[in-house]
Amino acid sequence: MFLACSRRCGGRLFRALFAEVEVDASGAYQEHRITQPGYICLNCGAPAFDLSEVPAAMEAEAQEDARPATSDILCPVCETLVQVDEGMECPNCGAPLEVTS
Ligand SMILES: [Zn+2]
Ligand SMILES: [Zn+2]
């Protein structure tokens, strides 16, 4: 991962917007996981991007254009629009999704 501020302000600290933090019984931090990509620059507050993901994302987009097999589904639990193959789970909340088309 290589995060960079979209304003190129030179900030080196970022905040993950969609993360779950696991704590022990006393509330002490144990572990975290990113549930959805989304970061902001802590220096100026602008959105930040993972530069290492950009080529992969562009490639995935190109493949999507060539392959219209997936469907857009609105998750019944969290109402996120997700593009899924059959039998997948919502990447946002983990709810099972049914492809109805
Ligand atoms: Zn910044
Ligand atoms: Zn969901």
Descriptive overview:
With 101 residues, this protein is of the alpha+beta class. It folds into 2 domains: 3-67, no CATH class; 68-101, no CATH class. 13% of the residues lie in helices and 32% in strands. The strands form 3 sheets. Strands 1-6-5-2 form a 4-stranded antiparallel sheet, with no helix packed on it. The longest helix is centred in the middle third of the chain and has 13 residues, at 54-66. The chain starts with a strand and ends in a 17-residue tail after the last strand. The relative contact order is 0.16.
Quick overview of this protein structure:
This protein is α+β, with helices and mostly antiparallel strands and 101 residues long.
- Major sheet strand order: 1-6-5-2
| Structural Rg | 17 Å
Shape: flat
Distance between the termini: 36 Å
Annotate the secondary structure layout.
Elements: E1 3-5, E2 14-16, E3 19-23, E4 29-34, E5 39-41, E6 47-50, H1 54-66, E7 71-74, E8 81-84
Antiparallel strand pairs: 1-6, 2-5, 3-4, 5-6, 7-8
Bound molecules: zinc ion (2 copies).
Task: Supply the key terms.
1 helix; 101 residues; flat; 2 domains; 4-stranded antiparallel sheet; two-stranded antiparallel ribbon; alpha+beta; binds zinc ion
